[in-house]
Amino acid sequence: MDRFTRHYKKIISYDLITKFNYKNSFQIPNIEEISINISSLKLALDKRQIVPLLVAIELISGQKGRMTFSKKNKIHLKVKKGMVMGCKVTLNKQNSYNFLENLIVFVFPQLKEFSGLTINNKTPSILSFKITDILNFFELNNEFFNFSKMPPVHITIKTNSKKISETKTLLNSFNFPLKKD
Predict the structure, then answer these.
(1) CA distances from 84 to 38, 46, 147, 154 (A)
(2) pLDDT at position 45 over 60
């Protein structure tokens, strides 16, 4: 068990139980999955750029990614149905906690002009954000020339919480940089 998993099971879950008075252990909010997506319109026009994206997403997440394809024809963008648009990986369980630790400990402190993230009130169980400079991930720092012209990384964290207060408490207990209300 890594550090974040142990911290969740030993400390955070008990804090959430005492704060929100859950009747069942299945009601305790946790992180269900983390989705990492890298896509760009330039990929549809130049297929040679998909290989560095697949390598980058595998280095970042520790899991093999898969390609994403366009679902519709978009004539004004010169995109046909079925063209490669990017790559995606979905992290579950242990890999999600490993990625979350990497994100909080190494990536967020390196971001310039970063003031925190906000949770949308319409979907309180989902937190979505993007990191424009992919070189903030230390796995990609050594290979600057291969990964210097990458599109931004879109990250979506999905929890099973029902209320925004539960989501904020869960993410704050992981020291996630959320904006103050």
Answers:
(1) 11, 9, 19, 17
(2) no
Sorted by where each begins, the domain ranges of the chain are: 29-173
Pair 64, 57: CB distance under 8 Å: no
Tokens of 142: 């050594």
Provide the token pair at 121: 């009130």
Q: Please give the model's pTM, rounded to 2 decimal places.
A: 0.87
Instruction: Based on DSSP, count helices (H) and strands (E) in the chain, helices before strands.
Output: 7, 5
* pLDDT tens by residue, 98-148: 899 888 888 888 888 777 788 887 888 898 888 888 888 877 777 767 777
Which residues make Cβ contacts (< 8 Å) with residue 99, sequence separation at least 6? Answer: 34, 36, 60, 61, 62, 91
Predicted confidence band at 86 (pLDDT cuts at 50, 70, 90)? confident
C-alpha span between 129 and 162 (Å, rounded):
20
Arch. (CATH architecture) of 29-173: 2-Layer Sandwich (3.30)
